[in-house]
Design brief:
2 helices; mainly beta; four-stranded mixed sheet; about 250 residues; Jelly Rolls; 19 strands
Length: about 250
């Protein structure tokens, strides 16, 4: 019978039990010690009833199905809400420092744990979150062979971006560059740096397996300690361009 509205009684007008229930009892803020005491006293609540519970200091209304705190906040995906005295606490559902909340669908989020040191966040359609932690760029210590390179060597992708020290004191040293179809570790744009640290013989560069070397002036060798040569790999024509102290 809740929702009877508002009524003004005239002088000497009788107050019937139905009026007492509909206009007074069901439209009054009723005070209870606990929600359990409320439920015991009001076996069948009606929509619109309002109560106050003293143990948690919360005012609630009955919506026809449930008792709801006035001003109650409904938690969304990735968020939790708790009541404390007369206030609400909104918390993000994360477990550790660095955790992220990322979207997984419309109005839906999930927790993404922090990655390892040095990792970066990248798009990844194979995961439920659409992103994943991947290894970032790392610094690689230059190659410094204990006895230096003093014999012929075929370059691989692992030599890219590193310093290769060469000693020609035992004779000429030939550096061979191969085609990326023969050695898949060779990638477009790789760079190889050579430094002659001793010896007076030649450091010779050649292409094998379909690869070739090219340098301005046609020189493809270097001689003498202190000579520095860089090779740049150009994929479409499998050419290694030589730059530096050639001739």
């Amino acid at each position: 019978m809740a929702g009877s509205g508002f009524k003004v009684w005239a002088d000497e007008e009788p107050l019937y039990a139905a009026d007492l229930m509909g206009y007074l009892m069901e439209q009054t803020v009723m005070v209870f010690a606990t929600t359990a005491a409320r439920d015991a006293a009001i076996a069948v609540p009606t929509e619109g009833m309002i109560t106050y519970t003293k143990d948690d200091n919360v005012i609630r209304y009955f919506d026809g199905t449930l008792w709801n705190a006035i001003g109650e906040i409904t938690a969304g995906s990735g968020i939790s809400v708790s009541e404390s005295t007369s206030s609400f606490t909104i918390s993000l559902n994360v477990d550790a420092k660095g955790d992220l909340l990322v979207g997984t669908a419309n109005d839906t989020v999930a927790r993404l744990p922090i990655g390892a040191d040095g990792q970066v966040l990248g798009a990844d359609s194979s995961t439920s979150t659409g992103v994943s932690w991947v290894d970032g760029f790392s610094w690689s210590e230059p190659l410094d062979y204990q006895d230096n390179v003093n014999a012929d060597k075929t370059i691989t992708g692992s030599d890219s971006g590193q310093v290769i020290y060469v000693n020609t004191s035992l004779g000429d040293v030939t550096i061979s560059f191969t085609d990326s179809t023969v050695d898949p570790t060779i990638k477009p744009g790789m760079q190889f740096l050579f430094v002659i640290v001793g010896g007076s013989n030649d450091l010779i560069f050649q292409g094998i397996d379909g690869a070739s070397v090219l340098a301005k002036g046609g020189y493809t060798s270097a001689t003498g300690a202190g000579s520095v040569v860089t090779a740049l790999y150009y994929y479409p024509t499998d050419v290694y361009y030589l730059i530096g102290d050639l001739g």
